[in-house]
Amino acid sequence: MCSPVSGTMAEIFLQHIEETSVKHLIDTKSLSFYTRYVDDIFLINDSTRTNPDEILKYIDTTHSCIQLNPTLKSSNSVNFLDLSISRNPTHLHIGIYRKPTTTDTTINFLSNHPLKHRMAAFNFLNRRMLTLPLNTAQQRIEWKQILHIAHSNSIPINMLTRLKLRIQRNISQSKPSTPTPLNKHTKWAIFTFSSPQITKITNIFKHTSIKTAFKCNNTISQLSKPTSRTPPTTPYDRPGIYSLSCLTCNKEYVGQTSRSLELRYKEHVH
Asked: Per-domain residue ranges for the chain?
């Protein structure tokens, strides 16, 4: 998919197929449940009306470019996205599923990244654990897994516990969400995170209409990017922060450039 509209066109096509070829299966109760996320489909069929082989054979005839690779339930259980769905006599049982290729790697706590970036994965893991309808035993298993991932990435356990308690409190106190009105006057400022000291600057914007975000330059992509630049021979061949003083009004201008200081100085002069 090299075109930026490819994803949108694929979604329109799949919705058309669902409307013309799948909807009547739901209307006639041949399918008790149907849902799709991108290209992952989860469905429940009525075994008195149809069976998985008939459904697969029918879907394969809807379009020559569509081919399903079904994963049938095994031991009354099937995996869908990050969920493990088990069938009991009276209800469906929900668990958390991780692929065999899943790793425990997140942004290490000792990395030079904003704290929000380092804790983002654990914010998601805790919120998923606390919002899914897991039973007590499964929630305990998932919490042990989160602790294991935290240990592998040097996350302080007390910080992780406080995060879990804060999410629990927010969930218990949360009211039905209403759409947040779009503030046309809100602006965003992006800062390059070099050290935690940068928050002393971003805190200035807390009570303003300007929201702040961080970006990092110490990523694998940035570090592995080839460079054709020759090593600077003088300090003025480097990028950096500079100051220019006006001899007429005695005022000072401070700027920053990613190009050489010499080139930026010539641009000011001319």
From this structure: 12-96, 115-172, 187-217, 237-269
Rounded to whole angstroms, the Cα distance separating 17 from 20 reads 5
pTM above 0.90, yes or no: no
Q: Whose CA is closest to 194, among 241, 250, 160?
A: 241
- Please answer whether residues 246 and 255 qualify as being in contact, where contact means their C-beta atoms are separated by less than 8 angstroms: no
The residue type of 252 is: E
| Predicted local distance difference test score (pLDDT) of residue 179 | 59
3-state class percentages of the chain: helix first, strand second, coil last, to nearest 5 = 40, 20, 40
Distance CA 103, CA 106 (A): 9
Instruction: Dihedral sign for Cα 251, 252, 255, 261, please.
Output: positive
Q: Output the six-digit token pair for 239.
A: 């990028």
Angle among Cα 122, 125, 130 to the nearest 5 degrees reads 125
Report helix, strand or coil for 137. helix
Q: What does the DSSP assignment read for 5-68?
A: THHHHHHHHHHHHIIIIIHHHHHTTSEEEEEEETTEEEEEE-TTT--HHHHHHHHHTT-TT---
pLDDT reported for residue 1:
47
In this structure, what token pair is assigned to residue 92? 């469906």
Where are any strands of DSSP class E within 129-209? 187-192
First to last CA, the chain: 46
Q: Which residues of the chain have pLDDT under 50?
A: 1
Coil, helix or strand for 153? coil
pLDDT at 176: 61
Convert 1-14 to b/e letters by CB count within 10 Å (16 or more is b).
eeeeeeeeeeeeeb
